[in-house]
Design a protein that fits this description.
Elements: H1 7-17, E1 24-25, H2 26-31, H3 33-36, H4 41-48, E2 55-56, H5 58-70
Antiparallel strand pairs: 1-2
Length: 74
């Protein structure tokens, strides 16, 4: 059993390995947000609130999450 990878970790590995100029759908990023971005899907959803773009690069998603987490709460 120790040699088996879970389905989620294989998908996360594939996504991280495929970092390129290709964009990823919001659903894909939400599904793997903890493995790829290190945040819960709710955080990514909050960072994307009001955004028009449906495809994002991983670097862009990380930048948006960082900006979202640093916003001051009124």
């Amino acid at each position: 059993m120790a040699g088996k990878k879970s389905k989620g970790s294989e998908a996360a590995s594939a996504l991280v390995a495929a970092i390129s100029s290709a964009g990823y759908r919001m659903e894909e990023l939400l599904a793997l947000s903890e493995a790829v971005l290190g945040v819960k899907p709710e955080i990514l959803a909050g960072a994307m609130l009001g955004r028009e773009r449906k495809l994002l690069q991983i670097d862009e998603a990380k930048r948006l999450v960082d900006q979202f987490l640093r916003k001051k709460v009124l």
